[in-house]
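Please decode residue identities from the backbone states below.
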């Protein structure tokens, strides 16, 4: 819903200019989202014109220059062509266009995954600065949990189009977890040798979303399926279990199993920072590859990849993964 308008129920052709400008998107690949034949300035001004911003050409030119300021690019870039910009600079233009119509909601679809690691933190920080300043709701879609942990207030974990877990960032990054969330957390590459991490490798490939498995959508790859017993996971879609304070998990595991889960990632002595962040969603396709790539630092107190009847025992209050307060901290865990 956008005010009184249900966007999903409104045909594309029936959407007003105000509705379209209120919901904008930052795309994953900045290299294909700019028209190679037009200058940066003219492309931003075209967006402003389409959204009815500015009464005259001069108004729109001034607003376009302000948008370049907003995304921290020199005003001289208005005359450049897209081929003269780096990937990070192109993505900044994508951000400028998304915020040109003063949107209420911005959907950022993997906005930094196509960028060099060295500019990911800068673009992420830019998005957050603008989001805070403009008080825009942002839906941030990513497979990179280190970015999600930094940026999000609430996290929705999705697998094959199903929401399998949702809650605040602290709830998602601390046990109890949905088994898929556990695997995603295990897949975060961490260079810091003081960090201990469980090593969970998922078997098999992701099933087709057009022909999903029966019962639980994760049942063909779930390492904890044997802990449920019977054929419940194969035959029945699990209900959304409320674990309190808005934390929901879609899984048949018993409360005793949830209670016995231990943190996947245990940091050294790092302080938590829970400053306000926008919402985020995690999608399903990257976990296996990342999980396989992530080698354990030490012999883990790890969960077995499949059919482990007994869950690992809880440590005595180990320090858990906390939110980084600085975007540079992203580099330490990516
Ligand atoms: S319902 Fe069963 S298969 Fe699905 S995530 Fe839970 S334990 Fe795994």
């Amino acid at each position: 819903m956008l005010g009184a308008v249900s966007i999903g129920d409104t045909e594309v052709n029936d959407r007003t200019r105000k509705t379209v400008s209120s919901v904008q998107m930052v795309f994953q690949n900045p290299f294909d989202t700019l028209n190679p034949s037009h200058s940066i300035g003219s492309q931003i001004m075209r967006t402003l014109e389409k959204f009815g911003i500015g009464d005259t050409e001069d108004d729109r030119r001034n607003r376009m220059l302000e948008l370049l300021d907003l995304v921290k690019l020199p005003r001289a870039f208005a005359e450049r062509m897209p081929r003269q910009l780096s990937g990070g600079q192109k993505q900044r233009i994508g951000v400028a266009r998304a915020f040109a119509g003063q949107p209420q909601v911005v959907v950022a679809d993997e906005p930094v995954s196509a960028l060099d690691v060295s500019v990911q933190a800068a673009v992420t920080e830019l998005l957050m600065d603008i989001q805070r300043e403009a008080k825009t709701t942002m839906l941030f879609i990513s497979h990179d949990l280190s970015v999600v942990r930094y940026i999000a207030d609430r996290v929705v974990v999705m697998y094959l189009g199903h929401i399998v877990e949702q809650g605040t960032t602290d709830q998602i990054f601390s046990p109890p977890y949905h088994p898929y969330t556990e695997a995603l957390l295990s897949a975060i590459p961490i260079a810091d040798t003081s960090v201990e991490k469980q090593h969970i490798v998922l078997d098999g490939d992701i099933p087709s979303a057009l022909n999903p498995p029966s019962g639980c959508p994760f049942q063909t790859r779930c390492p904890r399926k044997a802990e449920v017993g019977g054929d419940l996971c194969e035959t029945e879609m699990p209900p959304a279990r409320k674990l309190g304070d808005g934390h929901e998990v879609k899984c048949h595991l018993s409360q005793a199993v949830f209670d016995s889960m231990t943190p996947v990632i245990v940091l050294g002595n790092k302080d938590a920072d829970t400053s306000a962040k926008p919402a985020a969603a995690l999608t399903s396709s990257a976990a296996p590859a990342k999980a396989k790539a992530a080698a354990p630092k030490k012999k883990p107190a790890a969960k077995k990849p499949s059919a482990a009847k007994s869950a690992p025992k809880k440590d005595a209050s180990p320090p858990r993964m906390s939110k980084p307060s600085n975007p540079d901290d992203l580099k330490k865990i990516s």
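Observation: Residues 150-316 form one domain.
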